[in-house]
Amino acid sequence: MGYGLIITAALLWSLIGPLSKLAFREGLSPLEVAFWRAVFSWGLFAAHALIKGQTRFEIRDVPVLVVFGLSGVSLFYVSYQLAVQKGGAALAAVLLYTAPAWVTVLARLVFGEVITRIKLIALALTICGVTAISFGGTSLPGSTLTGWAVFWGLVAGFCYSLYYVFGKRFSVGYSSANLFLYLLPIGIVGLLPFVSFAAKTPTAWIALLLLALVCTYGANSCYYASLKHIEAGRASIAATFEPVFTAVIAYFWWQERLGLWAAAGSISVLAAVFLVVLERTENKHP
């Protein structure tokens, strides 16, 4: 059951790129898509937290919550939408998974964790993979890769890695719904000054609602439910199916194709993820 839940979470996460592209096609900007995703997601997490009575709040946590909200919601949501727009859903999903490399560096700087040989190999694989992707072209039909596509993908990966750093800070005392109850409004406020609102078609509203309900609240719920049945390390391995699912969906829905170099780079990045997570799992089971 645990693996079924985490595979479901990966599948739901993989719809972020394709649904975002649908919203872009309906005339919405990446900033507006990020804004409404945060707004609708907050409504769902807030309802969950209130129903469950998970509304704990400590004044001393405010500064860290503000930094986490601006980086983990405002910048993360926008950077991923821009990566999808500039380079395609498949490419954005792969670059998102440079997060373990960022975690390795941040864990050393923030927590003083040792960088093992496996982590160094994973870091090298990630760098090689991103380099290959840079030369391999975008997954968008008839377009060429720009530096901005790689840049925003790497920014998204970095912001994603911050969930590990800040997550350790809030792992005791805050449930997922409790944390998002306060994080998302901060992220929304951070996005609001930069958003230009466009007239929306019914299709655009459906895409936005699905991004919140399916890809954010639903995926998050499945992921945390899976942790009741399997350990976090094994769940992380299964979650790496997300870019694979994204590539398949983007291929059939939007005719996106990764070039040879980009595909090789993607494999290199995902191999790095597996190495890091496998090492973490083995360390828990000597």
From TrEMBL:
Localization (cell): Cell membrane
Gene3D superfamilies from the xrefs?
Answer: 1.10.3730.20
Which protein, by its recorded name, is this?
Answer: DMT family transporter
Q: Where is the EamA domain?
A: 2-134, 148-277
- How is it placed in the membrane, per its record? Multi-pass membrane protein
Listed A to Z, the keywords are: Cell membrane, Membrane, Transmembrane, Transmembrane helix
Q: Which InterPro entries match?
A: AA-Vitamin_Transporters, EamA_dom, EmrE-like
Give me the segments passing through the membrane.
Answer: 35-51, 63-83, 89-111, 118-137, 149-167, 179-199, 205-225, 237-254, 260-278
Q: For this UniProt entry, what's an example GO CC term?
A: plasma membrane
Coarse class of the primary localization is membrane
Per the UniProt entry, what species is this protein from, by scientific name?
Desulfatirhabdium butyrativorans
